C-alpha cells in the first residue's frame, strides 16, 4: 500500500506487510536519522548505555538506555519497567517530541491510530552483539503496537511465530527502516543475529534500534 501522509510535503510511503498486524516502512525514518542520533547522544550523556544483567546473571551483549516516563530494566530481580534509571537513581530523560511524533506517525501509517508511547528503549549493537528469540510481554496493554526504528549498520532481524519452536524468517533491517508490530504479531517471538562488523557514516561501528512502547 502507498499513501501520502503530508499534503504539504508529499512523500510516498510504502508499507510492506510482514505478517498479520506487522509491517515494514522502509526508509520511513531516514530524513529524521540525524535528529534521532543527536537525541540519542544527548540522552545517553545523562542515562549512559550499559550492559544489563539478565535474571540468570548473564551480561547482555546489547548496550541499552531509555527515555520517556518508563524505562525497561533487567537485573537479578527480573524484567520490568521502572521510572528511575538504576545507574543514576534519577528519572529517565524525557522522550524528545520528535521521537514520539515519528513513532506515532509510523503507527498511523500502519493503521494504528493514537499511538502515544510512554517508553523508548535504546539498543546499541556493536560487532557480535545479538538478541536471542524472545517475546515482549512486560507491557500491560497488548492492544498497542511496538514501533521499532533502525539506525546505522544493517542487521538481520529474526521473526518467528507465537511459539518458540516455529522456525523464524530472516528480515534484513537497514538504516532508517521502521517496523510496526501489533495485532496478531504483538506476541511473536523475535530476535536479531550477531551484528557484522562495518562502518556507517552516521553511527560508526554500531547499529542503534529504538523501540517505542505503551507500557501501561
Ligand atoms: C516483534 N529489539 O528491544 S526491534 C527489543 O533490533 C527487541 O533491537 C530488537 O526485540 C532490536 O525487545 C528488535 C523489532 C521488534 C520489537 C518488538 C517486537 C520486533 C517485535 C514485538 C513483537 C514482535
Ligand atoms: Fe523484543
Topology:
Elements (H helix, E strand, L loop, with lengths): L1 E3 L7 E8 L2 E4 L7 H14 L16 E6 L2 E5 L2 E5 L14 H13 L9 E7 L5 E4 L11 E7 L2 E5 L9 E5 L4 E4 L8 E3 L14 E7 L3
The site of fe (iii) ion has 3 residues, from loops.
Structure description:
- With 216 residues, the protein is mostly beta strands.
- The strands form 3 sheets. It has an 8-stranded antiparallel β-sheet, with helices on one face. The protein has a 4-stranded antiparallel β-sheet with strand order 8-13-10-11, with no helix packed on it.
- The model has no long low-confidence stretch (mean pLDDT 95).
- Helices cover 12% and strands 34% of the residues.
Rounded to an integer in angstroms, the radius of gyration calculated over CA atoms is 16 Å
Q: Which sequence of strands runs across the widest sheet?
A: 1-2-3-12-9-14-7-4
CATH topology descriptor: Jelly Rolls
Proportion of helical residues: 10-25%
The percent range for strand residues is 25-35%
Please sum up the structure shown.
By secondary structure, this protein is mainly beta. The chain has one domain (15-213): Jelly Rolls, CATH 2.60.120. The chain has two helices and 14 strands; from the N terminus they run E-E-E-H-E-E-E-H-E-E-E-E-E-E-E-E.
Can you tag this structure with a few keywords?
216 residues; Jelly Rolls; 8-stranded antiparallel sheet; 2 helices; globular; binds N-(carboxycarbonyl)-S-(naphthalen-2-ylmethyl)-L-cysteine; binds fe (iii) ion; metal-binding; DNA oxidative demethylase AlkB; ferrous iron binding; oxidoreductase; iron
